[in-house]
Amino acid sequence: MATPQISVLMKVLRELLRARGIRQRDIAERLEVSERTVTRWFSDNDIGLRPVEDLCGMLNLSFFDLCELASSRVEDRISRLTSQQEQALVEDALLVYVFRQILKGWTAQEIAAEREIPEPDLVGALMRLQKLGLIEVLPHNQIRLRTIRNIEWSPRGPYSRSANQWLTRCVQGADIGEPNSVWAFDEIKLSGASVAQLREKFDRLLEDVIELADGDRRRNPGSRDWYACILALRPMEVPPYPDWPDARSHPRLEYPTAQANAPNPAGSAPVSKGRSRSQRPGSNPG
């Protein structure tokens, strides 16, 4: 039953459940299934009609309402920004920060409180985002997102160039012994098929990270810290042993050079830590 339509339905369901603070554990307990089963429903879209109706029931939503919401999502939501929209974001640190938090479901009140943003500045940022066509500002600073949450950033666009600068700052002075940090790394040889599978796994893992962060935002707003979450798989070239300086020295590793690493002509506007599709450099700022 894993079709493009089902994929959209499950994305809408996941967002609605997250907005209600309903975790996968809660779903498993309510529907008397294992958490592994719930994870499979949302990560692989491997689900039947009855569980979808049960999930709708947890939201007091009919299946037909869900279909209507999914239909409007397909018709109305922007999946990729223009170069001009991306440029406008990276030129304004507040703008990109606010937009990245909106993509994660934060309210205007939460965004303002987190960084002590004065209301006039926040309202100004919201108005600029609305003018760019990325959101719609409703009464009382309620926000309707006009893009999908997993935006497909242009690999060579302004946002990706700015993201490259942010990533560089994140890994400078890396210390795997740093308290409260989590590191996992290795050098491995992989086939193209395995790389494709890992790309999908990265996307699903990042979804889980966002879900954890969203749960913390709702339940433990005062006991959180910012983290840079980076999932990466990068091609590299390891020279043959005869080319090593000597048996005791590590060989020099070479990485393919890409134009995406070129300096950002718009300046060094910071990119908010956070969510982006694993196949494209990008954001979501924390």
- By DSSP, the count of extended strands is 2
The secondary structure category is mainly alpha
Number of helices: 11
Number of domains: 3
* Pattern of helices and strands: HHHHHHHHHEEHH
Relative strand content: under 5%
Report the end-to-end length measured between terminal Cα atoms: 33 Å
Given as residue ranges, the uncertain stretches (5+ residues, pLDDT < 50) are 259-286
Largest sheet: 2 strands, antiparallel
Mean pLDDT: 82
Shape: globular
Residue share in helices?
40-55%
Side-by-side strand order of the widest sheet: 1-2
Task: Give me the Rg, rounded.
Answer: 21 Å
Write the layout of secondary structure elements.
Elements: H1 4-19, H2 24-31, H3 35-44, H4 49-58, H5 63-76, H6 83-90, H7 93-103, H8 108-115, H9 119-131, E1 135-138, E2 142-145, H10 158-171, H11 192-219
Antiparallel strand pairs: 1-2
Walkthrough of the structure:
This protein has 286 residues and is mainly alpha-helical. It folds into 3 domains: 4-76, 434 Repressor (Amino-terminal Domain) (Orthogonal Bundle), CATH 1.10.260.40; 83-145, Winged helix-like DNA-binding domain superfamily/Winged helix DNA-binding domain (Arc Repressor Mutant, subunit A, Orthogonal Bundle), CATH 1.10.10; 158-261, no CATH class. It has 11 helices and 2 strands, in the order αααααααααββαα. The protein has a two-stranded antiparallel ribbon. It is globular. It starts with a helix and ends in a 67-residue tail after the last helix. Residues 259-286 have low confidence and may be disordered.
